[in-house]
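<context>
A single protein, sequence plus fold
<sample>
Here is the protein in question:
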Amino acid sequence: MQLPKLSFFRFQMSNLLSDPKLSFMIRCYASGIELFPYFCNSLKNKLMCDTCGCGEGNKVTIQKPGGKLVEITHDHLHTHHEHGQEHSHSHEHTHSHDHSHSHDHDNDHTHDHDHSHSHTHKIDVESQILSRNNLLAERNRGFFLGRNIYAFNLVSSPGSGKTSLLETTLERLKSEIDFYVIEGDQQTFHDAERIDKTGVPVVQINTGTGCHLDSDMIHRAVEALQPKSNGILFIENVGNLVCPALFDLGENERVVIISVTEGDDKPIKYPDMFHGSKVCIINKIDLLPYVKFDVEKAKDYARRVNPDLRFFELSATSGEGMNDWLDYLKSKVAQ
């Protein structure tokens, strides 16, 4: 897909350079690392939520199994509070002036003057959205720190096995660690029902047309969960490797999950997600004999984007490789 014209993105170069992810891409390119195509991809992703309609008057629901359904209107553009107001407006003004003058002197002269002035005044709400989200993420982070709760943000494309991994993890460790789970999907209560069967407290967030969770949704979900101190919170984000990369939820670690049934080039196709993650889980390794997936190539691609990424190769279904992952979780609680 061809990159849209730069003017479409409605933000200035200063905004690009101030964004750590995009600045990272620029520095890589300047150093000769061939990441410019991914910088362009990040440029497109930067306004993904602003252009797809995600969150604009969208209905978001939060519910515990058997609990009351809470419905909120999640609007990125206008947020009103009883005391003080935040307003983000986008205005376009186009003025066109056509003047035609005909003067008849001794000689016949016709002067046509067409003046077309286009004045476009736009306030970029993207930076305001992310700034507000980051402030709320810090609030979440402070809450987690105060209660000694270690929060993981699990991200992946659809079908990577996030929920299956959670089920296996919870069944194996729930007698040793207090777990809490926030499930994020556009629709259905299916994943929350699966987690509920493990006996672990869970809240389901349905984002409607939204393609990601944000820090305010997490704040509301945590209020519903009321987690105790000294535990682990798993946030299973909406299946999407693009928009969730932009939104800090206040987590301690982002964990990106890929499966061997996907392409081994996922890390360089979606570099923002891997650059911002601390852990990469390669799931469904029990299927390696049946698919064309090069584990070492996938890890090499990921390290080009994030040299510090930690890897776990496992199968949530067969249990192969799970012990290393479980030991990692236990080490976080012991800190």
In short: The first helix runs from residue 13 to 18. The first strand starts at residue 58 and ends at 63.
